[in-house]
Every structure is written in C-alpha cells, then in structure tokens.
Design a protein that fits this description.
Length: 552
C-alpha cells in the first residue's frame, strides 16, 4: 500500500480545547464524532469514571449551552473557532457529596468548581463560613500549618474570599490572613481529599449550592420570577430572593415537564393538583431547563434504586481506596510524626551541639582569659614580689633609718644632755671665772694697794734714807763715791742692797700680776670662743631634731 493511499484513508479531524477549572487540554476529533465520543475522550484523559455528573459547556450568542451527547459535535450550534473551546464542568450536583462522590478526581473537580462559584459570588456564603471554607482550601493546597515555613504573607497571592466580603468589612489583607490562619492551624493532620470533602460538606448546605437559575414569568409580558433547578427538584423564587423559594416541586412529586415554544408546563404527580405554567424569554432556555430537569430527575431516581454492578464496584473500590488511603495517611502521619520527632530530636541535638560548641567556645575563651589572667597574675605576682622585695628592702632601710634615727635621737639626746651639761658647766665655769675674776680683781686691787703702799713706803724710806744720809753724811751728797774699805760704807752698801732687793720683789710681783692678768684675758677669750662653739653646736642639734621630727 502506498503512502498516498494511507493519507487518503486518514479521517479528517478538527481541534477542540477542553478547559477544566484548573487546566486546559487540546484534542483532535474526527469529523463524525458525536458529543459522547468527545466527552468520553476527555473523561479517559482525566481518569474520570463518575461521568454522569459532568458535561461539556460552551457559549453561543451570550448563552451557556451544554453539548448534546447523542448528536455530532459539528452538527450542533457551536462557536465557529479553531480550536473549538469547551468547558468541562459539573452539570449535575449530588445530594450528599460524602456518599455519592466516590473518586478523588470527581471530588477534586467539584471542589474547584464550587470554590470558584463561591469566589465569583454565584453561590452566596456568609463571611464567617467563607473564612472557614478558605481555611480548608488552604489546608488542601499547603498541607499542615508550619509556623516556620508559612510565614506572614504566604497567602498574599491566593484568592480565598469573595470581594463582597472584603468590601463588607474594613479589614486589611494581613488581618484576613490572620483570621484564616487561625482556623487553618486547627486542621493539622487532615489530608488534601479530606479537606476538600469538608469544604464540599459545608458548601452543600448553602442555599444556592447546585441551583441553576433561569428568569421566568407567569405571563408573557413580565419576567418577575426565577426558576431554579437542582438535585432535589424545581423551585420558584422571587426576582430579588434566591435563598428562600416561594414554591418547590420535588422530583418525586412531579409527573411531567414539557414546553411548547416559550411556555413551560409542570404537571404534579397528583392529578387533582394545579398545573403550573411559566414563560421563558426564548425557546433555547426552555430546552436547557428541560435538559437539566431530565438529568437531575434521572439521578434522583437512580439514587433511590439499587446500585448497578458498576456503581457497586466503584463504591467497593472507593471504600478500599479510602481504607488504603486512610492506612496510608495514618502511615504517613506516623512517619511524619516520627520525622517531626526525628527533626525535633535533630534540632535538639543541633541545639545541644550548638550549645556545647558555644559552651566549648566560651570555655576556650574562658581558658584563654584564664591563661591571660594567669600570665597577668604571674606578672603581677612577679611585680608584687619585686615590690615586696623592694618594700622589704625599703622596710629594712626604713628600719635601719629608724634605728639610725633612734640612735641619732639618742645621740642627739645624749649630745643635748652633754651640751646642756657642758652649758651648765660652762655657766658654772663662767660664774667661777666671774667670781675668780672678781676675786683676782680684788686681789689685784689689794696688790695694787699693797704695791702703792710699798712704793709709798719705799719712797718714804728712800726719802728718809736720803734725809738720814744728808744729815749724817753731808759730803756724800756732793761726792757720792765711797770706799770699800770704810765700814760705814759697808753698812751703807748693805742697806742699799736691801733696798734693791725689795725693789726687785716689787717688780717681780708686778710682773706676776701682769702675767696673771694676761692669762686671765687669754682664758676669757678662749672661754668665749668655747661658748660660741657650744652655741653653734646647740643650734645645729636643734635643727637636726626638727628635721628628725619631720622625717618621722
């Protein structure tokens, strides 16, 4: 077979883009594919088995429409674009999410879609409930709260609260994050699928959960009501109140639903009950309402029947998977706990090691400081020892000086005593000398008087001798020579000798008196000199005493 023949046999295709809540996929579809073929391809790509909840939605002329499964894709009124975009979304909602959502992927897709509807304010939620739901969303995304890892500001780029709630309260982003984190910290140990299930369990109790709203009117001219279709039935709301329906029709109480052009008719199971007729804006709306009513009614009836073998197998597998995941989660939780304990032990060991290193460093520093202090103390000890030696030497010198001063003081006292004694002796000598001087003066006066008397007597004797001589020997006066042979001359010579001797004695006496006077003067001069020396010594001793007192 040629390559050209193979090319001819290849079917023609067109491209589609499937947009899920969190991803986009592109597929090549054959021209003859029906909506179910494309839908099954997408479900296989996602690994989804609970296909009855979902559908492919597209927008044409501003109206959201679901792709029909039994018609060819290209035969339906789809956008003329390449690739053709479809949104893979939940078309029908379960009554009890915990019992009906068996697969984790189903649960995850519902979680993402309901979360988006709450954030887009398609489902009303009170501010308190939005904070709680946001905490479960954070737990599903980030896992367990870890203060060391989830620092303030880690939710800054996450959209967790509706803008209506943010506008309603004058709180900063940091304050909202603090409130969410307070709840988030309490969800520790909850796995991602559990957190998402808890989110859906809270959301399914909201009044607008799973409700598709359509504007209707009781007559052709006014659109003053809303018709809501959900898993439990059909509800009629006033235009300004989507929470509390004015009237409800449960699926079990509805016998038939039909439309004719823009008119929609609801027939109750009770044939006696009134038939309700409403008008929509266009025929397409009635077709969409009928399509949703048929799908929800089928699921309603299916829930109340015995599960098919496929559903039973899926539930069994889901149960086993949950048990396995529970055990796995328990094992992971145990491992995580052990790991956390090991990390805490490691951190404790590291802290202890750091503490020991710090203590060792401090001990080393203390040792170095001790060594430095020891060296310094050794130097100080050496200096102190030298100072002690110097002080001892100074003390010895001081002791010697003290002894010398004591000796000097004793000597000074002794010298002072001796000097005082010498002074007293000098004073006594002076007194004696004065007395002796007075006595000698008196004696000299007496001697002078005696000398004067002797001279006077000599003069008188000479005069008398001359008188006698003149009288007896007149010729002797003229001729004083005498002859040795004459006896009278001999007598005369004897008298002359006696006179001369007496004269000699007087001279000798005068000479002795004069010599004693000179000796006395010499002694007086020497005594004055000695007195001056004593005064100088006493003055010097007084100065030494004053200096010794100051030194002490």
């Amino acid at each position: 077979m040629s390559i050209r023949g193979l090319k001819k046999k290849q079917p023609k295709t067109f491209k589609v883009k499937i947009i899920t809540v969190d991803a986009e996929m592109e597929f090549s579809c054959e021209m003859k594919w029906k909506g179910k073929d494309l839908f099954d391809l997408v479900c296989r790509a996602l690994g989804l088995r609970e296909t009855w909840f979902f559908g492919l939605q597209y927008t044409i002329k501003g109206m959201c429409t679901w792709l029909k499964m039994d018609k060819k894709v290209l035969d339906q009124e789809i956008p003329k674009e390449d690739p053709i975009s479809f949104h893979f979304l939940a078309k029908f909602y379960p009554e009890k999410v915990e019992e009906e959502l068996l697969q984790e992927i189903t649960q995850h897709l519902f979680f993402l879609q309901v979360k988006k509807q709450i954030l887009d304010e398609e489902i009303y939620c009170s501010p308190e409930a939005t904070v709680l739901l946001a905490s479960y969303a954070v737990q599903a995304k980030y896992g367990d709260y870890d203060p060391s890892f989830h620092e303030p500001g880690f939710l800054a780029h996450d959209e967790l609260l509706p803008k209506r709630v943010l506008r309603q309260y004058q709180l900063t982003a940091e304050m909202w994050e603090e409130k969410i984190t307070a709840w988030y910290a309490e969800h520790r140990g909850i796995a991602r699928d559990e957190a998402e299930m808890n989110y859906l369990k809270i959301a399914q109790d909201l009044e607008m959960y799973g409700v598709n709203y359509f504007p209707i009117a009781q007559n052709k001219n006014h659109t003053d009501l809303l018709l809501g279709v959900d898993a439990k039935g059909i509800h009629i709301y006033s235009i300004n109140n989507r929470f509390s329906p004015n009237k409800s029709f449960e699926w079990s109480a509805i016998r038939n639903i039909s439309y004719s052009e823009k008119e929609l008719t609801i027939k109750p199971l009770d044939k006696k009950a009134e038939v309700f007729k409403f008008f929509s804006s266009q025929l397409k709306v009635n077709k969409l309402i009928l399509q949703l009513c048929i799908g929800n009614h089928d699921l309603f009836m299916r829930r109340r029947k015995v599960d098919s073998v496929e559903i039973q197998q899926m539930k069994a597998q889901a149960k086993e998977e949950k048990a396995r995941k529970k055990m796995e989660n328990q094992r992971l939780a145990r491992e995580k706990q052990l790991r956390e304990e090991a990390e805490r032990a490691k951190e404790e060991l590291e802290r202890r090691l750091f503490q020991l290193e710090d203590e060792a460093r401090q001990a080393n520093e203390a040792l170095i400081r001790s060594q430095e202090a020891a060296e310094l103390l050794a130097e100080k000890a050496q200096i102190a020892e030298e100072e002690a030696k110097l002080l001892a030497q100074n003390a010895a010198e001081a002791e010697q000086e003290r002894q010398r001063l004591e000796i000097t003081a004793l000597k000074t006292k002794e010298e002072k005593r001796l000097m005082e004694q010498k002074m007293r002796e000098a004073e006594l000598i002076a007194v004696k000398l004065v007395k002796e001087s007075d006595r000698r003066a008196k004696e000299a006066e007496h001697l002078r008087q005696d000398l004067h008397e002797a001279r006077e007597a000599e003069r008188k004797a000479k005069q008398k001798l001359l008188d006698i001589t003149r009288l007896n020997y007149p010729h002797m006066v003229k001729y004083p020579q005498y002859s040795p042979t004459d006896s009278r001359d001999a007598n005369f010579d004897k008298g002359s000798i006696k006179l001369d001797l007496k004269d000699i004695d007087l001279k000798r006496l005068s000479f002795e008196i004069e010599r004693e006077r000179l000796d006395y003067l010499e002694k007086s001069r020497k005594f004055e000199d000695r007195l001056k020396e004593l005064k100088s010594e006493i003055h010097a001793l007084k100065l030494e005493e004053k200096q010794s007192g100051l030194y002490s």
